């Protein structure tokens, strides 16, 4: 049933340019760990809509972010390329180059309306904000017709106000958050309807976009700030976790609030009777926050590590996809998939291919082949990394088959080797026991990094 439905759809689109193309919604949370959803076994956090979405479609049990932090992963989602190729190596470093081709730019060739909503973080959205660590590169420079975006993080409740008890970056308690109006709507600073749950603030802009484009193909990218710090939940959501401490009430509460908005979007698709013509993807951008994971609040499930580490706890994220009538309910896969896979999957769904003259490397694979059960091994290596000049941070990793080699993202950069088939939680370093295997993966890692360096230095396009 699954294979027939997808193959017929893609085949007809390839043969007939007038054939309908599915709507695509690409959702992402921020710093939500692999274990921070019900569908991955968490019985404390209430995520009924995400759980239902996973149950009605496919659950990706081994889905990787391209980096253990936000900005590099975000760029990988839109380009299908490793972050080291397009030069966004960490948060607040650089911005998306106009020479990169995004999903939105490709889909516009097929007549899609494109919209971006939420946390951008791959370029500044206000020209006056440009500093030494990035440049102005808003969604409108990368194929999005409409956008409602912030440059980076905002409080998950009342996003224009620095929350009570917050004493870190962003502003003073009770004062405007980074000036008070972090959202930009189509080039203009947004000043209305910004109170309360930030996920609701975002969804209030997504819903009208979906409604206005229900009769034509659309691509909506919805990137929530939840549950990135400052983590705050409204009172009604905190009460759901009354027996938990304050930190958990806010963390769990804001995730449940986001889940409610995801349910609202899914219900709208059904009200408009377009759910069977819409594929919805969901994932997080990296593992759980360092501090909240160390406190035992945020969860990477059984995996080692957290955000900013090259272990699977920093890279594996919760992920699922729903497409009624095409993806059978109850589907799951432990094939290793990644955020770089969205680009080749979505452009193929739309019946598009990269032009022959464009020889740039695309690092992802077609997820349809995985969903159909035709592919159980991705057939190519996965490369991860992030780099900061500050403190000499240079973390990298490669997964080749069931083997993983990582260079820790610390100044000493210790290298470790794991056999994920027998040691999925990375407890036993095999570097000393298997030096030849470590050398082989080190050479593969060096080759992939060299390829990325060539891309970053101008081999793929002029810029």
UniProtKB/TrEMBL annotation:
Record's keyword terms, sorted: Coiled coil, Hydrolase, Signal
SUPFAM superfamilies, per database record: Alkaline phosphatase-like (SSF53649)
EC number(s) from the headed UniProt entry: 3.1.6.1
Domain of life from the UniProt record: Bacteria
GO terms, molecular function: arylsulfatase activity
Domain Sulfatase N-terminal: 22-351
Keyword Hydrolase carried by entry: yes
Key word Cell membrane present: no
Residues making up the signal peptide according to the UniProt record: 1-17
Coiled-coil annotated spans: 431-458
Transmembrane segment boundaries: none
Family affiliation: Belongs to the sulfatase family.
PANTHER family in alphabetical order: ARYLSULFATASE FAMILY MEMBER (PTHR42693), ENDO-4-O-SULFATASE (PTHR42693:SF53)
Protein name: Arylsulfatase
Organism: Novipirellula artificiosorum
